Amino acid sequence: MSVFTPVSEAQLATWLKRYSVGTLELLEPIAAGIENTNYFVTTTQGRYVLTLFEKLGAKELPFYLDLMAHLARHGIPCPAPIADVGDQYLGELNGKPAALVTRLPGKSVMRPGADHCGQLGALLARMHLAGRSYAAHQDNPRGPRWWRETAPKVRPFLDEAGQALLEREMTFQGQHRFPELPRGPVHGDLFRDNAIFQDGRLCGVFDFYFAGVDVLLFDVAVCANDWCLVDPAADRRFAPNLVAAFLGEYAKVRTFTPDEREAWPTLLRGAALRFWLSRLYDYHLPRPGELVHAHDPGHFREVLELRASPAAPVPWVD
Description:
Layout: H1 9-15, E1 24-29, E2 37-43, E3 47-52, H2 61-73, E4 90-93, E5 96-102, H3 114-131, H4 144-154, H5 160-174, E6 183-186, E7 195-198, E8 201-205, E9 212-215, H6 216-227, E10 229-231, E11 235-238, H7 240-253, H8 258-284, H9 298-308
Antiparallel strand pairs: 1-2, 2-3, 3-5, 4-5, 6-9, 7-8, 10-11
Helix pairs in contact: 3-6, 3-7, 4-5, 4-8, 5-8, 6-8, 8-9
């Protein structure tokens, strides 16, 4: 959530006249993230998040906005898009598609414990069940096709060992497809900084702009690779108690299938590969922006190496 497209208070005040949200009181740029331009917006009637979409086009965006609206109607604590006076979620600001959504209370927990991971697992399972009745379809935008397109672009920036790792993992993932696994809308990017807690309670998940239809277990793997580590800053091995809490609470809401158990190690590797590739791309091939925050790709290189190692245990819940 960097600022690539500046917005002035005067510009936003004019734009907000299309909405029944009161008048502008405060506009704050959000400097974290790397994909879209985001601002916190406070009006006389509430607090919101304004997003200007830097890559996604007006034809793609209804999938994401309608998904958030669908999940919010089903009791999932996620941002609800605000419709304008013409009953449209999507507008345009400074030449970019733009949307206003509710701002959820709370803060991210960057060193989660077992209780945090358990709450996340239960909510993720509820979200997957609620998504079953969402009729729109859009493939995961960061799925295997994108991996194949991106790998050649980032390969020149890798050392010899990194190139070999990338080639091995691309070959491995290309040999595994899972048509038998449960599928549906997935968040695709539910890291610790995309969830917020208040008084120890998980009160919201957000940033659905990498969502798409995929294997549900891929979403589970993305979360496990970020939430369930011994030390996210220094030790990327799995913490068994965190994995047990996360998977155990998920399974109480949506039971895993035997096929998912078999596919789990491969999906963990695929989820690590996806974020290694995206971080390599954003780090080495960045777009110009006023405030840009690119993540270190070395983190997910290490995660991938661990998930692909026969010596590293892959915990599961029975």
